[in-house]
Amino acid sequence: MKKVLGLLAMICIVASCTNEDLLVPTTTEVTEKLQIVGNMGIKVETPFVKNEVAMNVKAETAGTYVVKILNIANKSVSKEEVTIKAGNNLLKIYANALPSSAYRIGLFDLEGNLLGIADFNKL
Fold first, then answer.
1. What is the DSSP secondary-structure string of 105-121?
2. Residue pair 58/65 in contact by the 8 Å Cβ criterion
3. Whole-angstrom Cα distance, residue 117 to residue 36?
4. How many independent structural domains does the chain possess?
5. Residue 20, H or E segment
6. H or E segment and range at residue 68
7. Position 10 in a domain
8. Residue 46 within any structural domain of the chain
9. In which element (H, E) is residue 10 found?
10. Angle (nearest 5°) at CA 102 between 96 and 108
């Protein structure tokens, strides 16, 4: 009886160690709202944001880029370096900490050259 219970316990432990990431479907397709026509740019899913919004960042070459959120006075309120692959890259903007206002989100190379820009409003 102890061997059977031990075997059942081992099976339960092994079964609980499976990688759950494989069970969650991953979306790599870009929806129509996030399609970018050109070779490079940035686009947000919706111009009105409460907490978070999806965005597509498209680049010709893979590498490290800078995504900045600019306020109405064109001053940077948030800046993050992102490593992206060539083509479409789906990312999220978390706007919880931003006060309600109009913003621009820009894609820059490491030298500070503007590659794409999109507008959104934090509600």
1. EEEE-TT--EEEEEEEE
2. no
3. 12
4. 1
5. none
6. strand 63-70
7. no
8. yes
9. helix 2-16
10. 85
Nearest to 123 by CA among 51, 38, 15: 51
- Per DSSP, the chain holds a count of helices (H) and strands (E) of 1, 8
Question: For the segment 2-36, what is each residue's pLDDT rounded down to a tens digit?
Answer: 666 665 666 656 555 544 444 433 445 788 889 99
Could you give the 3-state DSSP secondary structure of residue 59? strand
Residue in this structure with the two tokens 């903007």, named with its chain if needed: 93
Residue 87: enclosing H or E segment and its boundaries?
A: strand 87-94
Q: Give the predicted TM-score (pTM) of the model.
A: 0.72
* In-domain check, residue 96: yes
pLDDT digits (tens, 9 = 90+) for 101-120: 999 999 999 999 999 999 99
Domain span at 93: 27-122
Tokens coding 3? 């061997």
CATH number of the domain to which 60 belongs: 2.60.40.1930
Q: Does residue 1 lie in a domain region?
A: no
**Six token digits for residue 60:** 């010709």
